[in-house]
Write a structure and sequence with these properties.
Layout lengths: L2 H11 L4 E2 L4 H4 L13 E2 L4 H13 L4 E4 L16 E4 L6 E5 L4 E5 L4 H8 L4 E2 L12 H6 L7 H4 L6 E7 L5 E4 L13 H4 L8 E8 L1 E2 L3 E9 L2 H11 L5 E8 H6 L18 E9 L4 H9 L5 E3 L3 H12 L1 H6 L3 E8 L5 H8 L8 E6 L4 E8 L2 H21 L18 H5 L1 H14 L12
Helix pairs in contact: 1-3
GO molecular function: D-lactate dehydrogenase (cytochrome) activity; FAD binding
InterPro entries: FAD-bd_oxidored_4_C, FAD-bd_PCMH, FAD-oxidored/transferase_4, Oxid_FAD_bind_N
EC number: 1.1.2.4
Amino acid sequence: MNSKIKLAFEKIVGTSNIITNDLNPFNTDWMNKYVGSSQIVLTPQTTVQVSQILKFCNENLLKVVPQSGNTGLVGGSVPINDEIIISLKKMNKIQEFDLNSAILTSESGVILDNLNNYLLQYKYQMPWDLGARGSCLLGGNISTNAGGLNVVKHGLLRNYILGLEVVLPNGKILNLLNKNRKDNTGTDLKQLFIGSEGTLGIITKANVLCIPIPNEKKVFFLELKSFQDVIKVLQKVKRNEQLLAFEFMEGRILYKNMHRHNGNQLPFQFQEDRYYVLIEISGQSINVDSFSMDMMEFTQEIIMNQSEKEAQFLWKLREEIAESMGKMGYVLKYDVSIPPDKFEWLVNQIYPKREGPFHVYYGHVGDGNVHINIVFEQLEDLHKEEDKIEQKLFGLVKSEGGSISAEHGIGQHKRKYMELQKGKDVLECMNEIKRLFDPNGIMNPNKLL
């Protein structure tokens, strides 16, 4: 960074939209695992400013990193070296909600929670939900094709994005905004940017199809004796169209987290050798009795919330797991897709008979997404084991037709395993698309590809 470059940025965005001090929150990822050395953060307020920034950077071969809420787990939104960070947090205007079509039009820097709060007046909500809902931004959700808690019912985020506005690396503004449910006019270019992790351009606006807030919902918490029983419950309830979420947790981690709560609040006195499932059903009208009957043959007791506050507490038991693991030591976090009945098998292949450091598996069993967390007391031990674990884990996942990343993306973390996942021909095709959009390689370098 030199005075000439900084002066050019000041002319584009103004001094109030440039940050050069206290950059650690922008240079460091959520897990404190990846740390860059950027000297400047730009916070544009308009699409035109984003366009001018990228045009200048492209002409001067300056590499950039687009950044949303910086809540990712694979180092995709922080610099590797001293790239220029373009933060979208000030592009936070919701433009409109069309009640007739249920389509929201918004800038990409709006926090997910704020979108839901805005939609509340219309009795609608966003179709995806994430644990980081209080800090993640719309553009980051879209650029990583975020998964989350409701995929089992509503499907992936990309299904609800009808249109985008994207700034290309050369500064050209690509208008792909569209509020038509049906548009059969050739290649759907917006899909290239969904899940591309900021490597092809910067998303500045989006049209999102929203869903009605259900009139009724209930949360159930089950204690089961084996993982096989978890799968049997899943098979039983997945046929029910009321099913919104099906989350699985090992008793080992819930037992360790019991000290965080008043014992009287807990649905069970958690046991390390048991398995626990959180299920939520929703709809304009739900049949709680029939749903409960489907589960009773596998468990002696089903805890069901009696109030919204109780429902939120039951969800908190699930959502606090990631944070609590981080406080135990240095954590390797893996997020893979594999057939649900293979979850336990996969973990036992990595550490047979519970050998090795403390580790647990949990996650979205309803859509085949397992989270594996392995805790090390010393950072040196983590680095020593990481490559060995990943080569075995990702090889096993691939052998079962799974995915090395279910919802958190590739970022820096899994880039070297993309050929394993995609194969040489597919990976080369992805690289060709990258070269077409970004021939100078300025966009989020050394991420994804």
